[in-house]
């Protein structure tokens, strides 16, 4: 958990062993430097990073060894910290601010003496050397968090120009999301229906008891307003772009962020919420493409429309804490599979009844495209009369047109992709 003043660590999770390592766990007590699998640990960091709502980050690595082995591992841990941060940063649609702490932690726990050696590295400096850091335990830390929640309605149109058609659908989508991210960054955020001064105290006006704000279970409702029109002093011009198709994302996603209750600033709360919005949309897209690649699902050629269901967001509480982490559930995954994945990634026991599936509900609407050459309308399925409780959908539709002249209102649930290919 990050703030502009200090970092709070609320969870440490062991990297699960590879399948071939399960049979040799006893030998791992005498692990050698060569056995530190940087690629495997980095992938675990990426998986855990997806499971963190806004305001939470993977802050570093820890290792438990004998005292004499600790020094041997320091350089390896340093390389691992930088490799993990580089890998996770590639997936982000946002950048760190200059005010934020840019240090990441390595923690060595001596298995014999129980002593703790904490060091930090500045991830913005590739030549950064280790700095000693204080490691302190704090009472009540697990319940000292404020939560922010919002439902964001997304309508993203990504034209695929003839010059980008050779790129993968995943790369084109990510490029389009980067442009949409600027709208989220520049949006107006209402907290409990009010626009607050970004430098103000988030808890201003809240009731206090014995000098402390009663905020251990306090939740704020956030609404996001994005600009539709430029200011009058800005000029804009229309651009005609020759396209082979387009990708459209439309729907609603549930977002959640956390911030420490010690003098929380409005700007820190808004920043945490922005990052959760960007993360959850990008992560769902990335997971879909991974699933398609893993299962080698071919593109349908007999039908103009192709649907792929994107995962729902599932929340689960950290034992003994008010903070909830998340994962994503595809339609064919059972609750038992979700629980097992949480246990594997987070190294904590999770009960099935603790799983909270984020219900993302959208009113059904119609989608159509205009082919300017053939003067044909491609309409979506008929509009259902009842609202649909649904998942995120990827829709792929064939289109022969060459100029993007598209009006889209997709039958939605969660998020939907609408892809027109050659």
UniProtKB/TrEMBL annotation:
Keywords: Membrane, Transmembrane, Transmembrane helix. It is found in: Membrane. GO terms for cellular component: endomembrane system; membrane. The chain crosses the membrane at residues 399-420. GO terms for biological process: intracellular protein localization. May play a role in the trafficking of a subset of G-protein coupled receptors. Belongs to the ODR-4 family. This is Protein odr-4 homolog. It comes from Neovison vison. The lineage of its organism: Eukaryota, Metazoa, Chordata, Craniata, Vertebrata.
């Amino acid at each position: 958990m990050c703030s502009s003043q200090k970092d709070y660590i609320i969870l440490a999770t062991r990297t699960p062993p590879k399948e071939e390592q399960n049979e040799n766990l006893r030998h791992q007590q005498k692990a050698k430097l060569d056995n530190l699998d940087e690629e495997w640990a980095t992938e675990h960091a990426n998986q855990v990073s997806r499971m963190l709502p806004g305001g939470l980050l993977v802050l570093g690595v820890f290792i438990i060894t004998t005292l004499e082995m600790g020094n041997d591992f320091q350089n390896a841990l340093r390389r691992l910290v930088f490799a993990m941060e580089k890998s996770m940063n590639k997936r982000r649609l946002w950048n760190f601010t200059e005010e934020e702490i840019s240090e990441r932690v390595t923690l060595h726990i001596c298995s014999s003496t129980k002593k703790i050696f904490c060091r930090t590295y500045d991830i913005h400096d590739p030549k950064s050397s280790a700095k000693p850091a204080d490691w302190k335990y704090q009472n009540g830390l697990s319940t000292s968090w404020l939560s922010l929640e919002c439902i964001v309605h997304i309508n993203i149109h990504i034209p695929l120009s003839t010059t980008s058609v050779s790129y993968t659908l995943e790369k084109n989508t990510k490029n389009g999301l980067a442009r949409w991210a600027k709208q989220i960054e520049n949006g107006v955020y209402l907290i409990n229906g009010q626009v607050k001064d970004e430098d103000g105290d988030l808890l201003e006006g809240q009731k206090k008891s014995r000098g402390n704000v009663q905020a251990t279970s306090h939740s704020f409702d956030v609404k996001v307003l994005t600009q539709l029109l430029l200011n009058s002093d800005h000029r804009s011009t229309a651009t005609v772009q020759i396209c082979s198709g387009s990708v459209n994302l439309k729907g609603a996603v549930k977002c959640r962020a956390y911030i420490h209750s010690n003098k929380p600033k409005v700007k820190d709360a808004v920043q945490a919420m922005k990052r959760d919005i960007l993360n959850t949309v990008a992560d769902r897209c990335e997971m879909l493409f991974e699933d398609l690649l893993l299962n080698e699902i071919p593109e349908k050629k007999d039908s103009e429309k192709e649907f792929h269901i994107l995962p729902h967001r599932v929340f689960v509480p950290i034992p003994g804490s008010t903070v909830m982490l998340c994962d994503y559930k595809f339609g064919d995954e059972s609750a038992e599979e979700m629980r097992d994945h949480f246990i594997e990634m987070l190294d904590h026991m999770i009960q099935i009844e603790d799983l909270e599936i984020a219900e993302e509900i959208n009113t059904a609407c119609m989608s159509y495209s205009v082919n300017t050459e053939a003067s044909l309308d491609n309409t979506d399925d008929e509009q259902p009369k009842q609202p649909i409780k649904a998942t995120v959908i990827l829709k792929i539709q064939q289109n022969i047109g060459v100029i993007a002249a598209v009006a889209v209102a997709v039958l939605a649930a969660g998020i939907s992709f609408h892809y027109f290919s050659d």
